[in-house]
Amino acid sequence: MSSVLPSAVRPAVEETESVRMEFAYRPISSHLAIAPPVSVVIPAMNEAKNLPHVFSTLPDWIHEVVLVDGNSTDDTVRVARELRPDVVVVEQAGKGKGDALISGFAACTGEIIVMVDADGSADGEEIVSYVSALVGGADFAKGSRFANGGGTDDMTPVRKLGNRALCTVVNRKFGARYTDLCYGYNAFWKHCLDRITLDCTGFEIETLMNIRVVKAGLRVQEVPSHEYNRIHGVSNLSAVRDGLRVLRVILKEKGVRRGGRRPTTGAPAVIGRGQGL
């Protein structure tokens, strides 16, 4: 039997059963069909060489791909449109991964949002596991490289130790039970954005989200995920610099009251689906 979530929107006119089912449900596999449209947000800066691989792993049943371009100087936008003519391109006004994700979230029209990196480290075929967790009752599906079934090819011993230490601090301070903290492959229902405030610009946004969903009382489910090596280019991540920024977020959040506010970030500049710059 298929696992389904009824559509929130029904056709206004009488239709045949087959047409009605096609409208209401989106087949994912022989065992799962969903109604909510899924948006995939990909922040990218000079990732033209990686996008063919990244896009090829995305399932064909997703509703839209939102590419947030961080002022790339290569052919990132052109390649994205060649690969997927209906891609939604958002021009990033600010700087940093956090700023890019906030802009991408604002442009999404799907009920479920999935965060995917543009460096080829995330396997798009895992999206079905994240969506299944959400359809099964979770509010926030958090990827974990250290949960049973997960793994990583791209973490030095120093980074692994730092991640473990920061994860332990978050678990103790906020009552979480995470096995991984600093990982950007996550998915959530869009309405969760009404319960948390995203107000940081860097890599620490992933930690901020992990903390605030717990403080907001949202249901979190970890999803085992395998992180692969970056295919082309060099990461902008700095273990020391970004590790300190994560620590500052943790210490600051301990003094912030439980719950969240509606984000105040303005709407980004959307360049539309398949339109020229």
Gyration radius, to the nearest Å?
Answer: 18 Å
What share of residues is helical?
A: 25-40%
| Number of continuous helical runs | 8
Overall strand count: 12
Widest sheet, order of strands = 10-7-9-6-3-4-5-12
Largest sheet: 8 strands, mixed
Q: CA-to-CA gap between the ends?
A: 46 Å
Mean model confidence by pLDDT: 84
Structure commentary:
Helix content is 31%, strand content 18%. By secondary structure, it is of the alpha/beta class. The chain starts with 16 loop residues before the first helix and ends with a strand. The chain is built from eight helices and twelve strands. The relative contact order is 0.17. The radius of gyration is 18 Å and the shape is globular. The protein has helices at residues 17-24, 51-57, 76-83, 97-107, 127-135, 157-174, 205-215, 239-253, and strands at residues 26-29, 32-34, 38-44, 64-69, 88-91, 112-115, 140-144, 151-152, 186-189, 220-224, 226-227, 269-273. The strands form three sheets. Strands 10-7-9-6-3-4-5-12 form an eight-stranded mixed sheet, with helices on both faces. Helix 6 runs parallel beside helix 8 (239-253) and helix 7 (205-215) runs parallel beside helix 8.
